[in-house]
C-alpha cells in the first residue's frame, strides 16, 4: 500500500444516449465490471510487487477465538431431529476451551502463570480431541469475543478471564484475596475494576479504622472534588459520625464543661461548615454537590465573604515582623524591584511587572517580602503560580487555573469562569496585588483570559477602565524563560514560542525587572574554592539554558545543537551502565529506601514516559517485600451509542496509557516513592508533582508521607479518583478510576520542573525534544557532585554529545 496513488474517476452523465427516429429512447449500457477494471490503477510499487511474485497478504500471528460461558451454559449444536438425551449423552459434551483450561491448571503448575487470553501462546487447542496440548511451535494469540456491558455476568466473567491467572474453576475465578465472591461482578468490584459509589463507602469505612476524623473530612472533600459521586448526601449520612467523632470532645475541652451535650443536628452543621471551608480553599462549595445540605453560618464571623475572610486571616503583627526581617535582607536587585513594585502599590497605580531571574536568584524571597508587606497592612494579595508544585512554595499560593477559574481548553477569546456577582469577583475587586510565579510556563491565552475577565469585573471600580491592563490591578509576573514552555501538541519551535506571554500584546505593557545575583550559592557559606566550583557549575548551566555552549551538528544538514558534556558527569554506555546510573543515584537502595530523607533527595530523569515506567518497574523489582497491584476501572465518559462500546472492549481501554494519567496496573510496595498526578488539595500541599512515600497499602486507599513542598512529613490518605486524559491525543473520551499517582524513583523531565534534588541521574535513551528540557534536567541538581548522565547515542555518533534544544528568540529583548 502506498500513500497517494489510489485514484477515482468520477463522471456524471445522462444515461439516455439518444432517441431514434421512431422516438424510442436508447439507454447507454453500463458495464460496471469493465468500468472498475478501466479505473483500476496499478502503482509502480504494486506492479513491481506483483512481478516479483511477493505475497500480497498474510496474517501473523494466527488468532484464536476463545469460547467462554457461564457455568453450565456451554454451547451445544444439534439438529432438529436429534433426540434430547442422545445430545446429552454425547462424549465431551461438557468440555469447552474454558473448562479444559481449568483442568489443565489443576494438573500443570507452570500453566498457572497464564490468563485464559494468554493461554494459546503456550498451548494449542485440538478441536477433534477437545483438549489443550502443549504448544511445540508457532505463535498464536487468543481473543475473547466481546460481551456487551448489558449482558450481565457474562460481561464480568470476560473481564476476569482477562486478568486472573491459573483459575481452576468458576469458583476460583470469583475468589479474590481468599474471599469467594457470590458473583463475577462482585469479584470484579473487589479487584477495583468497577466504579460506583460503593467504592467511596468502602474507602471511607477503611479510612475510619486508620485515620483521624480531620483526615476523613479532608478525604471526603477530595472525593467530592475529584470523583463523580452519584449521591454525596447518602455518603455523608453514612459516614458523618466518623468524620465528627472528635467534635464532642473538642467542644467539652474548649468550654471546660464535660457535661455539655450537643445534638446531632448542631454537630452536623459544625462539620458541614468545616467541609465548606475546605472546599472554599480549593475554589469549590457544598453548593456544587447537590443534594448536600448547606451549613447555616449564623455566627457573625461568617457573615463576610468567606474568600475575603480567608485572605485576611493573618496575624498582622507577625506579618509586619516577617516583612521587616525579609526587607532588611534584600540584595541590591531585589531591593530595586521591591521599591518599584511598592511604589505602584502605595499609589494605587496598578501596572504590570515581570521579575526575570534564573533559579536561586531570590524570586520566591522577593514574593514573600511583597506578600508580607501587603498582608501586614490588612490588604489582600493573591499569590498564584502556573504549576501546582510552584504554588505550594508561595504563602497561601494556588494554581492560577484554580484561583482564576481559567478554562482548560483555551482560545484567543476565552474568559475565566467567574460571575461578576460572585464571591470570587468581590475578592478580586478587594485585591491590591496579584503575584503570578512561573509565568513563562503558562499559555498566553491564559493571561489574556484573566486580563479580559479582570477588565470586565473591575470596569465599575473607581480608578479602573477597560483600557487598563488587568483592569487596573497591580500584577507581578515572575519566572525564567530557561524552562519548559507551554506545550503545543505537534507544534514546532515557532508554535511553542508563539504561545508564550512574550508573544501576547500584554507583554507590551510589561516592565521587566532583573534579578541576577545567585543567592542560593551565596547562602551556602562554603569555602572559597567550593563556592567558586559551584558558581562555575551554575554559570555553565545558565549557558546551556541560553544555548551559549558551543554546539555542533551531527548530520550534514542538521542543526548545530549537539553539545559536549564534561566527562565528570558521564556514565559510559555499556551493558551495565543503567545499573551504574541507578547505583550512583540510589546507593544502597535496599538498605536505605525506607528512609524518606534519602528518597526525597534523589531521582532519575528521562524525557519520555515509556522509559520512566521501565526504570521504575526495574527499581521496584529490586526492593524486598510483597508488592500489591491496584487495577483501574476504565469507562467511556459519554457513551453516545453502542458502536463505540462494541468496538472497544474494556481490556482495550486498560491497555491505553496517556501522559499525566496513571496506568491501568499500578504496582506498589511499602516504602516506595510516588508522585501525585493531580492537584488534589492545594491548601494541604497536595499538588500535581508533590512526591510522597507509601507507608501503608489498604484495599481502597493508600497512606502516604509527604516528602516535597510545604507539608513535608504529613501523613495523607490517597484514594482513587476519576481521571480523564488531559491530552487531545485520546481518540475518544475515557474516564479512569485509579489512585492519581505513579512510581517516582524516576520521573519525566517535564514533571521534575520545580523540584530541587541533591542526586540527579539523567537518562537519555533518546535526545530531549523540547526547549530547555536539558537545562531543566541538569539544573535540578544543586551541585556538580550530584549529577550523573547516561547518554545512549546511535553507534556512529560520539558518545559524549547531547542534544540541547533552545529557542533563542525567547530571550530577545529581555
Ligand atoms: N536576600 C536574600 N537574603 C538571604 N537569603 C536569600 C535572599 N534571597 C534569596 N535567598 C535564599 O536563597 C535561596 C534561593 O532563593 P529563592 O528560592 O527565593 O530563589 P528562586 O529564584 O525562587 O529559585 P527557583 O526559581 O529555583 O525557585 C533560598 O534559600 C532563599 O531563602
From TrEMBL:
This is ATP-dependent DNA helicase. It catalyses: ATP + H2O = ADP + phosphate + H(+). Residues 651-696 form the DNA helicase Pif1-like 2B domain. It comes from the Eukaryota. Its EC number is 5.6.2.3. The keyword Hydrolase applies. The gene is LOC113699579. It is an enzyme of class 5 (isomerase). Belongs to the helicase family.
Amino acid at each position: 500500500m502506498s500513500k497517494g496513488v489510489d485514484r477515482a474517476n468520477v463522471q456524471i452523465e445522462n444515461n439516455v444516449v439518444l432517441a431514434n427516429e421512431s422516438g424510442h429512447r436508447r439507454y447507454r449500457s453500463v458495464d460496471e465490471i469493465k468500468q472498475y477494471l478501466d479505473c483500476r490503477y496499478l502503482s509502480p510499487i504494486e506492479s513491481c510487487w506483483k512481478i516479483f511474485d511477493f505475497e500480497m497478504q498474510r496474517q501473523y500471528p494466527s488468532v484464536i477465538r476463545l469460547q467462554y460461558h457461564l457455568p453450565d451454559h456451554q454451547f451445544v449444536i444439534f439438529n432438529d431431529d436429534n433426540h434430547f438425551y442422545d445430545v446429552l449423552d454425547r462424549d465431551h459434551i461438557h468440555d469447552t476451551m474454558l473448562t479444559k483450561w481449568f483442568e489443565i491448571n489443576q494438573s500443570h503448575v507452570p500453566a498457572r502463570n497464564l490468563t485464559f487470553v494468554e493461554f494459546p501462546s503456550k498451548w494449542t487447542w485440538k478441536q477433534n480431541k477437545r483438549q489443550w496440548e502443549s504448544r511445540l511451535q508457532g505463535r498464536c494469540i487468543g481473543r475473547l469475543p466481546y460481551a456487551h456491558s448489558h449482558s450481565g455476568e457474562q460481561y464480568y466473567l470476560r473481564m476476569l478471564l482477562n486478568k486472573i491467572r491459573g483459575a481452576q474453576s468458576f469458583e476460583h475465578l470469583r475468589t479474590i484475596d481468599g474471599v469467594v465472591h457470590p458473583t463475577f461482578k462482585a469479584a470484579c468490584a473487589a479487584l477495583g475494576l468497577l466504579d460506583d459509589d460503593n467504592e467511596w463507602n468502602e474507602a471511607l469505612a477503611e479510612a475510619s479504622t486508620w485515620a483521624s476524623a480531620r483526615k476523613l473530612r479532608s478525604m471526603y472533600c477530595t472525593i467530592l472534588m475529584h470523583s463523580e459521586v452519584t449521591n454525596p448526601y447518602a455518603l455523608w449520612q453514612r459516614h458523618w459520625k466518623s468524620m465528627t467523632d472528635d467534635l464532642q470532645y473538642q467542644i467539652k475541652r474548649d468550654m471546660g464543661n464535660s457535661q455539655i451535650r450537643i445534638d446531632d443536628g448542631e454537630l452536623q452543621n459544625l462539620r458541614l461548615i468545616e467541609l465548606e471551608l475546605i472546599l472554599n480553599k480549593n475554589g469549590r462549595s457544598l453548593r456544587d454537590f447537590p443534594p448536600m445540605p448547606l451549613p447555616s453560618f449564623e455566627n457573625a464571623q461568617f457573615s463576610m465573604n468567606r474568600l475575603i475572610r480567608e485572605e485576611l486571616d493573618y496575624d498582622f503583627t507577625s506579618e509586619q515582623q516577617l516583612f521587616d526581617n525579609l526587607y532588611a535582607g534584600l540584595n541590591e536587585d531585589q531591593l530595586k524591584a521591591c521599591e518599584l513594585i511598592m511604589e505602584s502599590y502605595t499609589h494605587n497605580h496598578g501596572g504590570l511587572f515581570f521579575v526575570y531571574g534564573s533559579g536561586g536568584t531570590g524570586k520566591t524571597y522577593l514574593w514573600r517580602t511583597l506578600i508580607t508587606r501587603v498582608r501586614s497592612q490588612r490588604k489582600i494579595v493573591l499569590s498564584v503560580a502556573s504549576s501546582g508544585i510552584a504554588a505550594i512554595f508561595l504563602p497561601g499560593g494556588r494554581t492560577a487555573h484554580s484561583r482564576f477559574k481559567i478554562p482548560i481548553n483555551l482560545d484567543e477569546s476565552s474568559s475565566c469562569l467567574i460571575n461578576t456577582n460572585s464571591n470570587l469577583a468581590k475578592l478580586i475587586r478587594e485585591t491590591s496585588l496579584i503575584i503570578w510565579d512561573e509565568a513563562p510556563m503558562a499559555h498566553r491565552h491564559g493571561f489574556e483570559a484573566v486580563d479580559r475577565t479582570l477588565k470586565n469585573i473591575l470596569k465599575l471600580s473607581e480608578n479602573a477602565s477597560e483600557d487598563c491592563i488587568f483592569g487596573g490591578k497591580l500584577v507581578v509576573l515572575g519566572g525564567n524563560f530557561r524552562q519548559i514552555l507551554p506545550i503545543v501538541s505537534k507544534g514546532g519551535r515557532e508554535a511553542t514560542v508563539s504561545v508564550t506571554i512574550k508573544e501576547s500584546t500584554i507583554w507590551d505593557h510589561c516592565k521587566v525587572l532583573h534579578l541576577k545575583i545567585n543567592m542560593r550559592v551565596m547562602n551556602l557559606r562554603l569555602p572559597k574554592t567550593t563556592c567558586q566550583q559551584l558558581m562555575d557549575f551554575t554559570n555553565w548551566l545558565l549557558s546551556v539554558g541560553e544555548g551559549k555552549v558551543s554546539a555542533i551538528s551531527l548530520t550534514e544538514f542538521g542543526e548545530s545543537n549537539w553539545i559536549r558534556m564534561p566527562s565528570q558527569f558521564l556514565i559510559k554506555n555499556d551493558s551495565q551502565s543503567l545499573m551504574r546510573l541507578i547505583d550512583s543515584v540510589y546507593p544502597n537502595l535496599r538498605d536505605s529506601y525506607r528512609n524518606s530523607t534519602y528518597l526525597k533527595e534523589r531521582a532519575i530523569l528521562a524525557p519520555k514516559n515509556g522509559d520512566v515506567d521501565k526504570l521504575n518497574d526495574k527499581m521496584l523489582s529490586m526492593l524486598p517485600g510483597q508488592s500489591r497491584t491496584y487495577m483501574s476501572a476504565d469507562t467511556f465518559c459519554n457513551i453516545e451509542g453502542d458502536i463505540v462500546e462494541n468496538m472497544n472492549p474494556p481490556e482495550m481501554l486498560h491497555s491505553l496509557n496517556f501522559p499525566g494519567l496513571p496506568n491501568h496496573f499500578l504496582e506498589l510496595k511499602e516504602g516506595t516513592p510516588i508522585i501525585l498526578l493531580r492537584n488534589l488539595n492545594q491548601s494541604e500541599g497536595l499538588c500535581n508533582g508533590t512526591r510522597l512515600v507509601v507507608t501503608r497499602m489498604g484495599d481502597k486507599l493508600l497512606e502516604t508521607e509527604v516528602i516535597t513542598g510545604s507539608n513535608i512529613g504529613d501523613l495523607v490518605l490517597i484514594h482513587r479518583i476519576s481521571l480523564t486524559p488531559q491530552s487531545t491525543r485520546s481518540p475518544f473520551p475515557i474516564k479512569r478510576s485509579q489512585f492519581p499517582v505513579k512510581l517516582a524513583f524516576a520521573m519525566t523531565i517535564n514533571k521534575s520542573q520545580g523540584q530541587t534534588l541533591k542526586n540527579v541521574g539523567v537518562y537519555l535513551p533518546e535526545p530531549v525534544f523540547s526547549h530547555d528540557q536539558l537545562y531543566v534536567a541538569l539544573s535540578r541538581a544543586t551541585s556538580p557532585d550530584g549529577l550523573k548522565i547516561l547518554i545512549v547515542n546511535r553507534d556512529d555518533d560520539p558518545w559524549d554529545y547531547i542534544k540541547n534544544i533552545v529557542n533563542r528568540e525567547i530571550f530577545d529583548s529581555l
